[in-house]
Automatic annotation (TrEMBL):
Cross-referenced Gene3D superfamilies: N-(1-d-carboxylethyl)-l-norvaline Dehydrogenase, domain 2, NAD(P)-binding Rossmann-like Domain
Keywords: NAD, Oxidoreductase
Alphabetized PROSITE patterns for the sequence: 3HCDH (PS00067)
Keyword Lipid biosynthesis: no
Annotated protein name in UniProt: 3-hydroxybutyryl-CoA dehydrogenase
Record: residues binding CoA: 50, 57, 120
Site features described as Important for catalytic activity, chain residue numbers: 141
GO MF, any single term: NAD+ binding
InterPro entries: 3-OHacyl-CoA_DH (IPR022694), 3-OHacyl-CoA_DH_CS (IPR006180), 3-OHacyl-CoA_DH_NAD-bd (IPR006176), 3HC_DH_C (IPR006108), 6-PGluconate_DH-like_C_sf (IPR008927), 6PGD_dom2 (IPR013328), NAD(P)-bd_dom_sf (IPR036291)
Organism: Papaver somniferum (Opium poppy)
Length: 292
């Protein structure tokens, strides 16, 4: 099993920035890659703020935080990942885009490198087929926000080796996470169950059963969830939710997974949730909820 000294994270959005933070705090050198330099600036700011919050709550020492920020480097050049031991992809939830990236990573990464995907639902086996090293490709599905949420779902593709699994499991544990293992079927464990619930909440709104507030309050107080499903959809990103329900619909071939037209319409309108300031609800500059 390889000792991970250097990690590459691709995609500096809400997930990639949090994953880069975890590696940096664990004392691992991290390259964070994004095509968009503004995304890298936002990621650096959010990582800096987040580690400072951990220090002020006494959860990490000032020294660990300072070293974490030193461990982090940002780039828009994939070639900087040549010496990474593990590369974790967290870009847009599209099979074609991910496969293109993995094929490029296969060319750039050193032969021993593990290529992991933070995909929420796409087949690891198919992503691995874009590379010449399917035994070193694995799903490493963090929950949002990665620095806070305890779980990492590890997904083994058809050819993922035991060595790859053990290296990634050990790294996740070094990040302070608890792991669960899933076979490579659409949505894995968590999103197989969560996303149909969110889609059904959209149908409940779409068909006029109740208001968005009553749907969320009903599920929060009625089923003891910290967030209602519509609020959670805004937090995840409505584009991400739609991509996942489409993967379930196509991959499992059951009409019960058809995307709700209201969810589709919100995404078409650019109402992607908190990250865009509007989704089911409207948000202010600090992503706080605004009454609309
Ligand atoms: P996001 O939209 O916040 O960030 C994606 C980032 O990737 C953007 O900054 C974009 O500029 C960058 N990007 C896109 N294509 C790129 C490329 N070819 N090379 C480099 N950078 C590129 O998305 P988010 O929410 O962080 O999701 C990323 C992945 O994580 C998706 O696969 C999603 O399904 C998965 N995921 C999302 C969760 C969520 O709650 N949002 C939870 C768990 C997994």
């Amino acid at each position: 099993m390889a000792d991970v000294k250097s990690v590459g994270v691709i995609g500096g959005g809400q997930m990639g920035s949090g994953i880069a933070q975890l590696a940096a705090v664990a004392g691992i050198g991290v390259w964070l890659v994004d095509l968009d330099s503004e995304a890298l600036k936002r990621a650096t700011q959010s990582i800096t703020n987040s580690v400072q919050r951990f220090v002020s709550k006494g959860q990490i020492s000032r020294e660990v935080a300072t070293n974490a920020l030193k461990n982090l480097k940002c780039t828009s050049n994939l070639e900087d990942l040549q010496s990474a031991d593990v590369i974790i992809e967290a870009i847009v939830e599209s099979e074609d885009v991910k496969k293109k990236l993995f094929s490029e990573l296969d060319r750039i990464a050193k032969p021993s490198a593990i290529l992991a995907s933070n995909t929420s639902s796409i087949s690891i086996t198919r992503i691995a087929s874009a590379t010449s090293r399917p035994c070193q490709v694995i799903g490493m599905h963090f929950m949002n926000p990665p620095p806070i949420m305890k779980l990492v779902e590890i997904v083994r593709g058809a050819d993922t080796s035991n060595e790859t699994f053990m290296t990634v499991k050990t790294m996740a544990e070094r990040f302070g996470k608890i792991i669960v293992c899933s076979q490579d079927y659409p949505g894995f464990i968590v999103n197989r169950i969560l996303i149909p619930m969110i889609n059904e909440a959209f149908f409940t709104l779409y068909t006029g059963v109740a208001t968005r507030e009553d749907i969320d309050t009903g599920m929060k107080l009625g089923t003891n969830q910290p967030m209602g499903p519509l609020e959670l959809a805004d937090f995840i990103g409505l584009d991400v939710c739609l991509s996942i329900i489409k993967v379930l619909h196509v991959g499992l071939g059951d009409s019960k997974y058809r995307p709700c037209p209201l969810l589709v319409q919100y995404v078409d309108a650019g109402r992607l949730g908190r990250k865009r300031g509007i989704g089911v609800y409207t948000y202010g500059k600090q992503q706080e909820l605004v009454k609309s």
